[in-house]
Amino acid sequence: METKNYRSLVVRESEDKKFTSAIEELSTQNLPAGDVLVRVLYSSLNYKDMLSASGNRGVTRKYPHTPGIDAAGVVEASSSADFKPGEEVIVTSYDLGMNTSGGLGQYIQVPASWIVKKPAGLSLRESMIFGTAGLTAALSILKLADHGLPKGAEILVTGGSGGVGSSAVSILSHAGYKVTAINGIYDESAFIKSMGAADVIDIPDPAESAGKPLLKDRWDAAVDTLGGNPLTFALRSVKANGAITCCGNAASADISLTVYPFILRGITLYGIDSQNCPMKTRVRAWELLAGSWKYPWLESISTEVGLDNVIPSIEKIKAGKHRGRIIVNMKD
Known about the structure:
single chain, alpha/beta, six-stranded parallel beta sheet, 26% helix, 27% strand, globular
């Protein structure tokens, strides 16, 4: 196969253990081994990409490295019978952008088992407005639906202005559920309500519920994207036999609570792993995102940047100042 040069975000570690990012020109001959070479047309920015770009060893072990846990593009070459050159595909999660060169480069090379064929109801650009964040939200809502959540149920979403949170608010409200969202550090209540949230509340103050094993039961279920105190609040506030999904730890990886939500209200806590979820479930979620869960205001929750503006956009995520989804046009 012909070797191609391409542009990519590269994070490097200096001798004094500091990490710097720059746009560099690379060669496809240096990509990791894989069944399928994909020309990336769109990517997106996620919290995990910020961690990788910041030198977080829990995400990326070795540098230099190209982050980007999301990629959508066209098959350039394939040794797999499942994918042919010219096919439009989506690659999210697994090891992409963590220790495998990621979607913030114009080419990726990955195993065929990581790839989803783009559903007919989505464009490549739209698939990256969803990205891992939208997939994670969809997996969370699928888990609640399979738990037996009735239409019209009242659902709490933590981190309502973030990538996963805004996707969850949008999908749920579009699907006919009544959504209450927890605001972020910055007031984004107007933005959250524009996605269909019936109510927006501030981040709960832990001091107000200190020593209380249970709080007033207010919601049928919850989608938690933050961990920490917001998850603790949700666990103590969901109605009997309700369910909560947990997919993040931006607030904290620790939670402080008693067993009472579980033994007195029968609450179920589901962990959501979008990185390594089974392909059958992954495809099911993408089909729903391309179909009945594709909300009409999809474009309004996204901001598009080019590769040259990725570094300042990552800094916004680091500072907690981003809202919705940031997609990256990789075509230039």
